[in-house]
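ok so for the tutorial part 2 we go from a plain amino acid sequence to predicted structure tokens. step 1 is just haveing the sequence, like this:
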Amino acid sequence: MSQQAFEAKVAEVLETVIRPRLRRDNGDIELVRIEDHKIFVTLTGACVGCQLSSITLSGIQQKLMEAVGRPVRVIPAHAVPWAGQPPVKAAAAATAALA
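step 2 — the prediction. this is what the tokens look like for a chain of 99 residues:
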């Protein structure tokens, strides 16, 4: 599977499988970016501050692995300060964080 097909499949699964389930509980998910096998997302709505959000992310990761047929890592974008920035700014932010 090409990277473009992989990204399309991830977006499709998030939209058609994951999002409806989260919305039933007044939550939601936003796809921030994809880098290789790392999928950066933001949980919103009722998911913000929920004690079970880490379990939710694990379940999302499992569903995505089943759908794309390869290992993936779902990472909350807030855990990586530069996740929502374009690659050039992300590199600068990563360098600044290490300084």
